[in-house]
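Something for you to look into today, if you have time. Could you write out one complete protein record for me, on any chain you like? The space below this message is yours for that.
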Amino acid sequence: MKSGFADMDSRRSDQSGGLPAPPLEKPRRQSERIFRLPKPDTKPLRKSDMLACLRDRRSRRSFSDQPMTPAELAMLLWATQGVDRVSSDKCATFRPVPSAGARHAFETYVIANGVTGLGKGIYRYLPLTHELVLASETPDNMSRQLSAATFGQEFAARAAATFVWSCLPYRGEWRYQHESHKTMLLDAGHICQNMYLAAEAMELGTCAIAAYDQEAMDSILGLDGDDEFTVYLAPVGKPA
């Protein structure tokens, strides 16, 4: 069986054709409110033993009403999609998670339900500046919408924050054409494993969700379902 990457050069990607790289993060509208995040540091970490984090990592679906702190939220965002540096040609970023060709084809949304100092709403992470932008206010029935969109997985609506990762496929296609669709699925797993380990280090609970109504989740986030669409969710909170 021939590798999908073996004859990639013969099919001429947009990158090899000299087309400009897509933006490293989704541009924000000037009218959107910005929320600065604390710099990621070790303060919210309660476990420093990597072996313990690997051993104790479990999917947790029961959360208390205790809110998440801004420092905890900031660490989770940085651990899953933060940017350490940008390449000299401004076409790639280097992050705590690996990505094929450093394409990082994802955006991170946070449906905040119980984060200290952060009103309820849907926020989008800006990894280049380590900030949040308010994408939209959450309606009064958001819990019901989110539970329905995840086929009755009510813990998704009870978490302090539900992380939702969307994919912008062209970021990968620009370099790898349709072969990028496989690598982007692998990259989503890298992101969520970092979420599990970072959450465990802070004694938070999370559970990955891949069972959801595609149209419903895209609608909640205001995505078109073609150029950008939901791929993965992870509710996070203090374990009950």
The chain has a mean pLDDT of 94. Residues 114 and 197 are 21 Å apart (CA to CA). The longest helix spans residues 180-201.
